Amino acid sequence: MTGILSTFLTHDRGRPLTFGIIADRRRERFDPRTMDLRDLALLAGQNADACAYGKVVVISRQGIFTFQATPDGGTAPVFCGNSTAAAIGCLGSGMQRASVYGVADTPYEITARIDGCAINQTWIVPAASPQESTWRGCRVVFLPALNDYALVCGDLPAGIDPEAARCELLGADPACKLAIISGVGPDAIVEFHNSNGRHGGAPQTGLATIALAMRTVPWLENYFTDGFVTYPSQAGRRRARLPVTLPAAAGTISVEMPTVAVELVPLAMERVA
How far apart are CA 179 and CA 237, in angstroms? Predict the structure, then answer.
């Protein structure tokens, strides 16, 4: 069997966002979670222009599987809005439906509209309940709907760096993610952190996690009074609108992910054992 390999880079109004690689393997039914993805992880390595990198996406007959390359050369299953948009771009044109696999035991269903290179997605996710706690004097909200996230409100304690905080709050699993919210209202700044360091932008799943948590944690609104998140980037502070979330069928929530542009560059046809 053969599979098509492509690199992808997503953009927001010309600004590079996420870089990775896609393996299109829809010709045969199999489980990508049993594959050895180390070679693909190397191809998805660091990209100097992108805010995030190291994403490996496999398109199969079952759906879209996304993985994050880890510092030890392995991969971990994750949800990623930008990577999913890139995979959707391989499926055709117009309206598309797909099952998306990440850290959850069952896939999430998405619909997407493709308009040229622009991809708009709606995700249907479980109505998971946020858990509130206090950690080292900071208020923390945990929500596992889109990756396992800890939202830390306040500056980290002295001597604790983001990776140490992530591991202490969530464990060493590289799929777990941290958001640090400093300041209040218009002055609030959010940093998003993965196991491989600070995200260079505002990941779609991170923005969606905040929006989902705000549905049942009212005091979070004090940090985002205008519905926007301010975050640091290489070009200075930027702002991103929080996704719209609405009740859907059977106790689920629909999440309108931000529209992104997708650039795909085919690499080769590869032999798949």
Answer: 16
Token pair 């996420």 is found at: 18
Residue 151's H or E segment, with its range, is strand 149-153
Helices (H), the chain: 38-43, 81-88, 162-170, 204-214
Give pairs for 25-28: CB < 8 Å, separation 24+: 25/1, 25/58, 25/59, 25/60, 25/272, 26/59, 26/60, 26/61, 27/1, 27/2, 27/3, 28/1, 28/61, 28/272
Q: Sign (positive/negative) of CA torsion 254, 260, 266, 267?
A: negative
The runs of H, that is alpha helices, within 101-249 are 162-170, 204-214
Find residue 153's DSSP bridge partners. Answer: 139, 181
Question: Is residue 154 a contact partner of residue 145, using CB atoms and an 8 Å limit?
Answer: no
How many CA atoms lie within 13 Å of 105's alpha carbon, on the beta-carbon side?
Answer: 0
pLDDT in tens, 160-218: 999 999 999 999 898 899 999 999 888 899 999 988 888 988 999 999 999 999 999 99
**How far is 264 from 82, CA to CA, in rounded Å?**
13
User: What would the pLDDT profile of 139-162 be if each residue is shown by its tens digit?
Assistant: 999 999 899 999 999 999 999 999
| Helices within 44-185 (DSSP H only) | 81-88, 162-170
Q: What is the pLDDT of residues 48-69, one digit of tens each?
A: 788 888 999 999 988 999 999 8
